[in-house]
Write a structure and sequence with these properties.
By secondary structure, the protein is an alpha+beta fold. Helix content is 39%, strand content 17%. Strands 1-2-3-4-7-5-6 form a 7-stranded antiparallel β-sheet. The longest helix has 29 residues, at 26-54.
Length: 207
Amino acid sequence: MNINEWPKIFQREAFSFKVLKQQLSESEIEAIKVDYKLIWNDWKSANLQTAAKLDLGKLKIESWTNGWKIRDHFWTCYRIGDVNPCIGVLVNRQQLQVYLMFQNYKSETRLGTSTQYQSAVNQQLANWQRTVNSTEYYVWTASQSELETHQRLDQYQESDEPLMIGKVWYFPLAAEFNFEQEVSKAVSELLPLYREVIGSLEVAADE
């Protein structure tokens, strides 16, 4: 499947089944489910193939539905150990993103607070930034819409709010775009920063 087909599934106004049932027939909703599963399975396959080459352990792939709505994006993540920071891979109606993030969901069950995470990022970011092409990276926060145009890393000013740091590609992608190659490269470049952040969280936990 052409990767540029992925964002088309999210080009809709309603995502909850409650609203969809008010607007569409049962057969129309079933057709949407079929389309979603088709795109999601292609997304899942591409990410599993990428993960096999990276060899970072089991990949968490979020389902295409949470039971009461269809997703407005697809998301997966790489996580090292039982920590809250992870490297996410996301596709929405406009973008493909690969980024370091702090996951708030069930954060009380894993290592590290959002404050500790951002403190570690602020400490390590300058050194890591010198190892990558910072003009290819962007920063944003959870309070910003994922659809916003994000600030470039080389223009970043230090923040107290937990940052997401990563690469963003806008659809339509060029015909020669290689998902496995580009995502692997971005994850590999983010890994040193990710590992430094984890190390800081482990030190903080031992204090």
